[in-house]
Amino acid sequence: MKVIVNGAPRELPEGASVADAVASVTTAPTGVAAALNDEVVRRSAWASTVLRDDDRLEVLTAVQGG
Q1: Where are the beta strands (DSSP E) in 6-43?
Q2: 48-58: burial string, b at 16+ Cβ within 10 Å, e else
Q3: pTM assigned to the model
Q4: Which region among 13-17, 26-30, 52-56, 58-62 has the lowest average model confidence (pLDDT)?
Q5: Which superkingdom, per the lineage (predicted)?
Q6: Which of 7, 22, 28, 53 has a 20 to 30 Å separation from 37 between CA atoms?
Q7: Are 56 and 8 in contact (CB under 8 A)?
Q8: Which helix (H) or strand (E) segment is 57 a member of?
Q9: Which domains does the chain have, with CATH numbers?
Q10: Which DSSP symbol is given to 17?
Q11: Could you report how far apart the first and last alpha carbons of the chain are, in Å?
Q12: What whole-number distance in Å separates Cα of residue 61 and Cα of residue 54?
């Protein structure tokens, strides 16, 4: 299935979760937030939130600095 992750199309297997998609774009899940179709997904729900074709996922990473 095709999902838009951080503005770019990405092919993921059917049944992929938010956790799977986050793992595909980052190596360290700490300091990371995810929003699915403009709704924040709590980290505790990542594994159980299944993605669908044409969903939009934004994966945001907190960084230090000024």
Answers
A1: 8-11, 32-36, 39-41
A2: ebebeeebebe
A3: 0.90
A4: 26-30
A5: Bacteria
A6: 28
A7: no
A8: strand 56-61
A9: 2-61 (3.10.20.30)
A10: B
A11: 39
A12: 22
